[in-house]
Automatic annotation (TrEMBL):
Top-level taxon of origin: Bacteria
Region (Disordered), start-end ranges: 153-189
Bilayer-crossing regions: 20-44, 64-86, 98-117, 129-147
Signal sequence, start to end: none
Ranges where the VanZ-like domain occurs: 25-142
Record's keyword terms, sorted: Membrane, Transmembrane, Transmembrane helix
The protein, known as: VanZ family protein
Length: 189
């Protein structure tokens, strides 16, 4: 069954299925990457102070900052595009879709952080939740609108050529002349 969007447009079910499959594959990869046990000789304590890890990465130099901050931003960034595609939100207002997507991304990141508390070798870091959420928001605001325009433009069918109108007389003109008529208004397709 197809969903009707605003304006009576229908969402393409193939795009939604592709979004769901890509979303599932990405979440499986993220789960494997973040929730597998690691054997390490030493572990840093959990970071529950916002921006402490980001400050530490910036203090370690540009390469450490690029790797630490960049990996945090990129881990869940695809959710900014995949969540609206999987939900079929191509014809909804962008602001509401963005709010739902960023909130869902934050909840996924928080869920991963909470699950990491029970995994050996994984450390909980509040900055990873902040960076993951920022990555989802960046992807939602930078990548989703052009993709949405492209998909919506591709879904539109070209307008049909206008039909020729023929004048059909209501009745034959007689000796008394023609019957006065009201102007006709065409019906929109």
């Amino acid at each position: 069954m197809q969903r009707l969007g605003s304006g009576g447009e229908t969402a393409d079910p193939r795009i939604r299925v592709a979004g769901l499959l890509l979303l599932a594959a990405h979440l499986l990869f993220v789960g494997w990457l973040t929730l597998r046990p690691l054997s390490v000789p030493w572990m840093a304590p959990a970071n529950l102070h916002p921006l402490a890890t980001i400050r530490s990465d910036l203090a370690d130099g540009p390469r450490a900052a690029f790797e630490g901050i960049g990996s945090g931003l990129l881990l869940l960034a695809p959710l900014g595009v995949l969540l609206p595609l999987a939900a079929g939100r191509l014809h909804r207002p962008l602001l509401g879709t963005a709010a739902r997507t960023v909130f869902a991304g934050a909840m996924v990141s928080l869920g991963i952080a909470l699950l990491q508390t029970g995994v050996p070798g994984q450390v909980v870091d509040v900055d990873s939740v902040l960076l993951n959420t920022a990555g989802v928001a960046l992807a939602q605001f930078l990548l989703f609108p052009p993709l949405r325009r492209w998909i919506r433009g591709r879904d539109r069918t070209p307008p049909s050529p206008p039909r020729a109108r023929t004048r059909v007389p209501l009745r034959e003109e007689g000796a008394q002349g023609s019957t006065p008529r009201a102007t006709r208004v065409g019906i929109a397709p």
